[in-house]
Design a protein that fits this description.
Radius of gyration: 19 Å
CATH topology: Protocatechuate 3,4-Dioxygenase, subunit A
Number of strands: 14
Number of domains: 1
Largest sheet: 6 strands, mixed
Shape: globular
CATH architecture: Sandwich
Number of helices: 4
Strand content: 25-35%
Helix content: 10-25%
């Protein structure tokens, strides 16, 4: 496990052991992929912006899948085809703010997953006792989930839980300023193409961490009620050039400018031990601008 100096608790020895084991398995997968002839992708270069139209893309070994049905003699056969190869996303810590039942807030279990309203595509507003909306630059992000144990076939019916900080770098439920909110958290189920799209805001950059979005993948919606049922926990790294553009020009992100200047994916305590190929896989491809918002996609490789 990669502990952060700003984290307000230690996740314990058992979590460390599980983290080490997950890293070992991941390194073996990467070595296997390299032997098979894969090539590392380049990470998008660092750059600034002034709010004008910006796009950033990350390339990785990806796949495209298609399915079809044929009927012969009254027997229907469904086939799925894929092209290319793919990497499994590396296992990463869920951090101190997951609200997935793995920790507590003020002595009470913090688990938003079992609350009515958590399954939604637009996660900008809180649900339940509060309906306040988190301000920020709009971001529409489509996650394409594939099964790395089945030749990169699309993974339909999986549940994805994502969460991230506000433009000020705070987390709903945990941070005192937004303790009564549960926005910027949501669950969706992948469709028949393995896709799920979330509408949210561009996260800020807080001290000590590179800008990121957390996510957990569960085998089904019925299983997405407690962290022990997850099959993958990882994080997305946001493109640095777009981060610079948003933070320097959009309202409410001014504190992120200095925070971003002191951190990179290489010195980040979560992303720092990943390969270039892994970082490319973990970085969504985004297009848009800080005035009108961004849209993007990312492929999530799950060893299901």
């Amino acid at each position: 496990m990669k502990n952060s100096p700003y984290h307000d608790h230690d996740l314990g020895l058992q979590h460390d052991l599980e983290r080490i084991a997950a890293q070992t398995r991941q390194r073996r997968r990467v070595l296997s992929w390299l032997v098979a002839g894969g090539s590392a992708a380049l990470v998008a270069a660092c750059g600034g912006g002034d709010g004008s139209s910006t796009s950033s893309s990350s390339s990785s070994t990806g796949s495209t899948g298609s399915s079809g049905t044929t009927t012969t003699g009254g027997t229907t056969t469904t086939t799925t085809t894929t092209t290319g190869t793919c990497l499994a996303d590396p296992e990463e810590t869920q951090g101190p703010y997951p609200a997935d039942g793995s920790n507590t807030v003020n002595g009470q279990a913090a688990n938003v997953l079992n609350q009515s309203g958590i399954v939604r595509s637009d996660i900008r507003s809180s649900f339940g006792s509060s309906t306040n909306t988190a301000p920020g630059v709009p971001l529409a992000l489509t996650l394409n989930v594939v099964n790395t144990n089945q030749s990169c076939a699309v993974l339909a019916g999986a549940a994805i839980y994502i969460w991230h900080c506000t433009r000020d770098g705070n987390y709903s439920i945990y941070s005192s300023s937004v303790a009564n909110e549960n926005f910027l958290r949501g669950v969706q189920v992948t469709d028949s193409s393995g896709k799920a799209t979330f509408t949210t805001i561009f996260p800020g950059c807080y001290s000590g961490r590179y800008p990121h979005i957390h996510f957990e993948v569960y085998p089904s919606l019925a299983m997405a009620t407690l962290y022990t049922n997850k099959i993958l926990t990882s994080q997305m790294a946001l493109p640095r050039d777009i981060c610079s553009s948003v933070y320097s020009s959009a309202t409410g992100y001014s504190a992120s400018v200095n925070n971003l200047s002191s951190v990179t994916v290489d010195n980040d305590n979560v992303f720092g031990d990943n390969t270039d190929a892994q970082i490319a896989l973990m970085t969504p491809s985004l297009s848009g601008d800080a005035t009108n918002g961004f849209t993007g996609t990312i492929t999530i490789g799950v060893p299901a």
